[in-house]
């Protein structure tokens, strides 16, 4: 593992497979990209290591939470997310660690499969997970990342609180799930390549397992001031393309894929310090059976390669 402290970065850019400090490539965990990320100016909720130490209120907890962050090419958001969430959770005394699930293959982004991989990696140590978007920062201190009840998952970013999504069955953004419940539901579907709908399918899994979603109570803030949504839709457009028979297939409950058959390799594990906070980066190579889900690559290249191999 490689340890890099980036708390004193004067300038930063990400190009290709490495990011550079003072012109020297020191870490390779980012997927290839045509983007270069310029230095951040006044990053939201940035705190240094001393401030984090001062806010640390850990007591010995009976539970440990793995924060699973599906990720690809969102490094500037990660720089804001890690210190903000760490400070937020330390004030609550939540014992946790952040795992960045970095998809490095060339298929379309698959949030659900990455979460399945992250669960496999962490479940022996952590007894609940937070499925957490990197661009959603909690602001209200009454949002408690506590161990979910026996009823089922705890949805922190409820439809009356999330800045963008307000339908009743919404369970995206930030969802806390007990280890035994995630296993009971066979995790998430692996069929969702591209953006959207994987959390809606997961809601059906929750219901089919006889569980129910609970949400924070007595929150006085609303959709405009409970979270900061730092996603830049102009800089990073959602991959909403639908190709082959994707639209038809992803509207159905998936009974065939999940935690038990996610196909992946973890190429490397990195330790990274961001403003004094240690996070773990998993470089994850997902595999796609293009005969079953050809929409993992709308160009058709993956499907053609799969036919040749068979």
Strand content: 15-25%
Main β-sheet description: 7 strands, mixed
Q: Class in CATH?
A: Alpha Beta
**CATH fold call:** Spore Coat Polysaccharide Biosynthesis Protein SpsA, Chain A
Side by side, the strands of the main sheet go 8-9-6-4-5-12-11
Question: What global shape is seen?
Answer: globular
> What gap, in angstroms, lies between the N and C termini?
37 Å
State the helical fraction. 10-25%
CATH homologous superfamily, by name? Spore Coat Polysaccharide Biosynthesis Protein SpsA, Chain A
* Overall average pLDDT: 82
Strand segment count:
12
Using the 3D structure, state the CATH architecture. Alpha-Beta Complex
Please provide the ordered H/E string of secondary-structure elements.
EEEHEHEHEEEEHHEHEEH
| Total of domains | 1
Subcellular location: Golgi apparatus membrane
Membrane topology: Single-pass type II membrane protein
GO molecular function: metal ion binding; xylosylprotein 4-beta-galactosyltransferase activity
InterPro entries: Galactosyl_T, Galactosyl_T_C, Galactosyl_T_N, Nucleotide-diphossugar_trans
